[in-house]
């Protein structure tokens, strides 16, 4: 076998997600559609190339949603990667929709969750999605969480879902969900936003994967960017790394339950994020970075 054909090492080592061993550095597909996560990508060929490169780098965990675009991210994943590598774990989410203006609206009634799973199965071209996150939205007509979880369990029993995750949950909601068997939690969390720490602790206690979204602070302009934080920039220059790598390396070092899904539409940023696997944060740097959430409020 030539070097080019050899299976790459899983970037960042591996951890368990829904019964599968996945590389700790995965990929989030939310940046692939057009601006505002709406419509087609600015450059379709680049979007397809980013997905193919991610897999070539050893990524085997891709996070997506039917409502990215809507209908764009899943179509790109299918176009770029189907038939999928055997070890590729696809993770999607249900519980939301986009309205005509592109606003995110809740779709949490059991029949909407089911329709969401069916839409993902069709667009991804699979008989089962490995992991589906129940994405809660604190808006609209409330739907009982137990009713939502019961529908997710029914979908898992039918084999349409391999494992259930939850997303954007409170500590209380996570406690309520844990008895049905939860593979992962996806909440906003980063070096600068540590509000999810109690949930991470509960994940650690129950050996649940912690898959933070907005690990770099997102593409949304109103949220603080990890890559612009002066102490992160300083640490990066001292370590010969990039600020994004420092932010991601901190997440990996902070807790072994963490799996990364940084989002990018840029091939150079993708390579940068994968190379986080080679960045070592020494104890002094960890201490400085650990303290950042307190100093940034
Ligand atoms: N469960 C949920 O409700 C939920 C919500 C949001 C997101 N998610 C998932 O979580 C994933 C991650 O969140 P996210 O994509 O919103 O935010 P993110 O990963 O925190 O940040 C994405 C932003 O960082 C930039 N970026 C990425 N790599 C970079 C690098 N190496 N250097 C400099 N800038 C870089 C991207 O721009 P470029 O494109 O220019 O690289 C983009 O603007 C999403 O892709 C999605 O799969 C889930």
Q: Any key phrases for this structure?
A:
single chain, 297 residues, alpha/beta, TIM Barrel, seven-stranded parallel β-sheet, two-stranded antiparallel sheet, 11 helices, 11 strands, globular, binds NADP nicotinamide-adenine-dinucleotide phosphate
Brief summary of the model shown:
This protein has 297 residues and is an alpha/beta fold.
- Biggest sheet strand line-up: 3-4-5-8-9-10-11
**Sheet with most strands:** 7 strands, parallel
Helix content: 25-40%
Q: How many strands? A: 11
CA-atom Rg in angstroms:
18 Å
Q: Predict the CATH topology.
A: TIM Barrel
Terminal CA distance reads 52 Å
Order of helices and strands: EEEHEHEEEHEHEHEHEHHHHH
What ligands does this structure carry? NADP nicotinamide-adenine-dinucleotide phosphate
Structural class: alpha/beta
Please tell me what the overall shape is: globular
Strand content: 5-15%
Task: List unreliable stretches of 5+ residues.
Answer: none
Q: Indicate the CATH class.
A: Alpha Beta
Work out the count of structural domains: 1
Superfamily (CATH H level) name: NADP-dependent oxidoreductase domain
What is the architecture at the second tier of CATH? Alpha-Beta Barrel
Mean pLDDT across all amino acids: 96
């Amino acid at each position: 076998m030539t070097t080019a054909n050899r299976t790459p090492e899983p970037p960042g080592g591996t951890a368990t997600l829904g019964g599968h061993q996945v590389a700790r550095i995965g990929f989030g597909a939310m940046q692939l559609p057009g601006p505002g996560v709406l419509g087609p990508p600015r450059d379709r060929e680049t979007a397809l190339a980013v997905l193919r490169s991610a897999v070539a780098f050893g990524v085997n965990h891709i996070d997506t949603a039917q409502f990215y675009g809507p209908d764009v991210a899943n179509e790109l994943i299918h176009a770029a990667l189907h038939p999928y590598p055997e070890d590729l774990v696809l993770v999607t989410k249900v519980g939301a929709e986009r309205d005509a203006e592109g606003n995110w609206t809740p779709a949490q009634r059991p029949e909407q969750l089911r329709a969401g799973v069916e839409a993902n199965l069709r667009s991804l071209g699979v008989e089962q999605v490995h992991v589906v996150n129940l994405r809660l939205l604190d808006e609209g007509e409330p739907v009982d969480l137990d009713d939502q979880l019961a529908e997710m369990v029914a979908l898992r029993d039918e084999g349409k879902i391999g494992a259930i995750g939850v997303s954007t949950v409170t500590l209380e909601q996570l406690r309520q969900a844990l008895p049905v068997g939860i593979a992962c939690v996806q909440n906003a969390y980063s070096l600068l936003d540590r509000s999810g720490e109690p949930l991470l602790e509960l994940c650690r206690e129950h050996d649940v994967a912690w898959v933070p979204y907005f690990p770099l602070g997102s593409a949304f302009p109103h949220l603080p960017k990890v890559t612009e934080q002066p102490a992160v920039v300083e640490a990066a220059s001292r370590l010969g790394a990039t600020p994004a790598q420092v932010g991601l390396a901190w997440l990996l070092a902070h807790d072994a339950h963490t799996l990364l899904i940084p989002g990018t539409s840029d091939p150079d940023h993708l390579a940068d994020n994968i190379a986080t696997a080679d960045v070592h944060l020494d104890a002094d740097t960890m201490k400085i970075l650990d303290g950042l959430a307190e100093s940034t409020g």
